[in-house]
Amino acid sequence: MRLSILRSGVARGGIELRQTLTTWSDLFAYIFPTILLLGAIFFMRNAHVPGTNFSLGTQSLTSSFGMSIAFGGLMTVAQLLIADREDGTLLRAKATPNGMMGYLIGKTVLVGGMLLISFLLQLIPGVFVVHGLHVTATGWLILLWLVPLGLIATMPIGAVFGSLFENSRNMALLILPIIGLVAISGVFYPITAMPGWVQAVGQCFPIYWLGLGMRSVFLPSSLAGVELGHSWRHWETLGMLVFWAVVGLTLAPSFLRRMARRESGSAVEARRQRAMVAMGR
Fold first, then answer.
1. CA Rg value for the chain
2. Closest CA to 121 of 210, 183, 15, 30
3. N or C: which end of the chain has fewer CB atoms below 10 A?
4. What pTM value is reported for the model?
């Protein structure tokens, strides 16, 4: 039974992922942010990391790889969950035997596939925009635990956020704080140049640690000297991501169960009516 649920969930996620590659709005969501990011990196390529001759654009590009994982886990999961509540997809999954488990597996496959596509869209042209990227054998090993753990640390939290908001119009309440965290997490400018209290706040959240992990994978080892503690701090990265994974996996099941209990045909219809009223104004 569990194997059949896993297969159906993976198949569902694969179908939804293929649909994103044939839908213009989804393709736009892949391409447009990548163009904006690479444009910003292009104009930063001749700036230097403070205290070095290394390109700030190259450092920022590698940090953005970690930021993409965090955005995918937090924002994409929340958006998908809200959209599926609004159109009744979640209610249909709830009404099907083992449907919720298959639904969650499918969304995991979908988000993981979307992140892989986004990563390749950033990396492949990024190699031609900036210089200095390289990955050692140790770097590949770091990626093997960093990426899955980054998803586990962020996706359950994204599911919690998605369970709290009933419509996509309230997503600004989530987007603005996350953008603020990006600003203080050393993605586009070294965190070492920020005030001490800002550094402390930034290090409390996964975005900083995912960015640091990605920098350790794609940048020369000499660049560790400009990081906090003058090292890549792999053990601290592992510990913080495990901490957030435990927090998310502890909170998400209860939030999702409560959300599922509240789903009904009348609730879906009420949300549709509110959406139609809002569009008519």
1. 20
2. 30
3. C
4. 0.89
Q: How many domains does the chain have?
A: 1
Q: Is 88 left (phi over 0), alpha (psi -120 to 50) or beta?
A: left
Arithmetic mean of pLDDT over the chain: 87
The encoded tokens of residue 77 equal: 């999961």
| CA pair distance 115, 30, nearest whole angstrom | 9
User: Which among 130, 116, 100 has a CA at the least distance from the CA of 259?
Assistant: 100
Query: Which residue range forms the structural domain that includes residue 159?
Result: 2-280
pLDDT for res 265: 63
From the number of C-beta atoms within 10 Å of its C-beta (0-12, 13-18, 19+), residue 181 rates as: buried
| Amino acid identity, position 157 | I
Residues 6+ apart with CB under 8 A from 157: 73, 74, 244, 247, 248, 251, 252
Place of tokens 């990955």: 135
Residue type (1 letter), 13: G
How does pLDDT run across 174-185, given as a tens digit for each residue?
Answer: 888 888 999 999
- The CA distance from 167 to 162, in Å, is 9
Per-residue pLDDT averaged across 37-43, rounded? 90
- Cα dist from 136 to 67, 212, 235, whole Å: 21, 16, 18
Q: Does residue 97 come out as left (phi exceeding 0), alpha (psi in the -120 to 50 range) or beta?
A: beta
Say which residues have a Cβ less than 8 Å from residue 166's Cβ, sequence separation at least 6: 82, 85, 271
DSSP state of 281: -
DSSP 186: T
Side-chain half-sphere exposure of 239, counting CA atoms within 13 A: 6
| Dist. CA 167–CA 159, nearest whole Å | 14
Please name the amino acid found at residue 146.
L
Euclidean distance between CA atoms 140 and 80, whole angstroms: 30
